[in-house]
Design goal:
Strand content: 5-15%
Strand order of the largest sheet: 3-2-1-4-5-6
Pfam families: DUF5753 (PF19054), HTH_31 (PF13560)
Organism: Streptomyces toxytricini
Largest sheet: 6 strands, mixed
Protein name: Helix-turn-helix domain-containing protein
Oligomer: single chain
Low-confidence stretches: none
Distance between the termini: 44 Å
Shape: elongated
Mean pLDDT: 88
Structural class: alpha/beta
Domain HTH cro/C1-type: 18-72
InterPro entries: Cro/C1-type_HTH, DUF5753, Lambda_DNA-bd_dom_sf
Number of helices: 12
Length: 294
C-alpha cells in the first residue's frame, strides 16, 4: 500500500482535469454519456471524484475529447492508476465516511462547527467509544473499536505533516463548538471531565483554535447544523464544504456554496467566545462534572 498516495485527492484532481477537457471541447456530460453508452450520472461522478476511475475510462474519455497530446493522456492514465491505490484507512475495512477521511488527510486547514458533540479530531478514545456506542447502538463491539482506531489515526494530522506535501505542517484546525456538545454527558462524569480537559490541552497548540458558542448567545448562523470547510495546500484543489448525513454525506464545491458557508463561519467565529474565554468556560463545566479545578 502506497502511503504517500491519497486516492481521494487523486480522483478529485483527475476529475477536474477531465471536466476541463470536456468543457474545452464544448460538450455536455449528457453528450459524453451518449457517446460512451453510459449514464450521465457516471460522467458526473467521475468528474467530481466520487467514483473510482479506471485507465480504460480515461482512455475512452480522451478519445471522445480528441486529445492528441500523448504525454497528457499518459499522465491522466497514471493519475487513474494512482487513484485506485488504497489509503491508510482501507486497512480498517469498510468505513462509511472514507471519502471525507481522504479529504481530511490531505487538507491544510479545517474549519468545523459542531452543535452536538466534541469534534472527532479532539476526542479522547474513551469519549469516542461511548459516543459511537450511544449514537449507533446497533454497531458491534468490533466495529466500535475499529471506528475508534480510525478516529485516533486521523488525529495524527494535528501533530504530523502531510505525507503527500512534506512542506505543509500539521493540519490547521479551527473548531466552534456549541455549549450543548460540552454539557451533554457522554459516558460518566469522570469521562466527560477528562474529555474537556483534553479539549483545553489541545486548544493550547498554536495551530488549534477552539471557541465555544454559549447558549446565552441566542440564535446564530450555525443553528442549521454541523458542517466543515476543508482547504488544501495545492491551489488546483477546490475548497470543500462537508455536511454529514445519516445515510449519505454532502460535499459542496461550487464557489457560491463555499462562499456562503465561509461567510456563515466568519459570523460564528465573531459571535462565539474568544480563545481565553472559551478555556475558562470549559474549565467551569469541568468543575460541574467534578473534574479538577484548572
Amino acid at each position: 500500500m502506497a502511503s504517500n498516495v491519497n486516492p481521494t485527492v487523486r480522483r478529485r484532481r483527475l476529475g477536474m482535469e477531465l471536466r476541463k477537457l470536456r468543457e474545452d471541447k464544448g460538450m455536455t456530460a449528457e453528450q459524453v454519456a451518449e457517446r460512451l453508452l453510459v449514464s450521465q450520472s457516471k460522467i458526473s461522478r467521475l468528474e467530481n471524484g466520487r467514483r473510482s476511475i479506471s485507465q480504460r475510462d480515461v482512455r475512452d474519455l480522451c478519445d471522445v475529447y480528441e486529445v492528441e497530446d500523448r504525454r497528457l493522456v499518459e499522465s491522466l492514465m497514471q493519475m487513474a492508476k494512482d487513484s485506485r491505490q488504497q489509503g491508510w484507512w482501507h486497512a480498517f475495512g469498510d468505513i462509511p465516511y472514507s471519502v471525507y477521511i481522504g479529504l481530511e488527510t490531505d487538507a491544510a486547514s479545517l474549519r468545523t462547527y459542531e452543535p452536538q458533540m466534541v469534534p472527532g479530531l479532539l476526542q479522547t478514545p474513551e469519549y469516542a467509544h461511548a459516543l459511537i456506542r450511544g449514537a449507533v447502538p446497533e454497531t458491534s463491539p468490533a466495529d466500535v473499536e475499529k471506528r475508534v482506531q480510525v478516529r485516533m489515526h486521523r488525529q495524527k494530522r494535528l501533530s504530523e505533516t502531510d505525507n503527500n506535501n512534506p512542506e505543509v505542517g500539521p493540519l490547521r484546525l479551527w473548531a466552534v463548538i456549541d455549549e450543548a456538545a460540552l454539557r451533554r454527558r457522554v459516558g460518566d462524569a469522570q469521562l466527560m471531565a477528562r474529555q474537556l480537559e483534553f479539549l483545553i490541552e489541545q486548544s493550547e497548540q498554536p495551530h488549534v483554535t477552539v471557541q465555544v458558542m454559549p447558549f446565552g448567545m441566542g440564535a446564530h448562523p450555525g443553528m442549521t447544523g454541523q458542517y466543515a470547510i476543508l482547504e488544501f495546500p495545492d491551489a488546483t484543489d477546490s475548497t470543500v464544504v462537508y455536511i454529514e448525513g445519516v445515510t449519505s454525506d454532502l460535499y459542496l464545491e461550487k464557489a457560491n456554496d463555499v462562499q456562503m458557508y465561509s461567510v456563515m463561519y466568519e459570523h460564528l467565529r465573531a459571535q462565539a467566545l474568544n480563545v481565553e474565554q472559551t478555556r475558562e468556560f470549559i474549565a467551569d463545566i469541568i468543575d460541574d462534572f467534578g473534574g479538577k479545578n484548572r
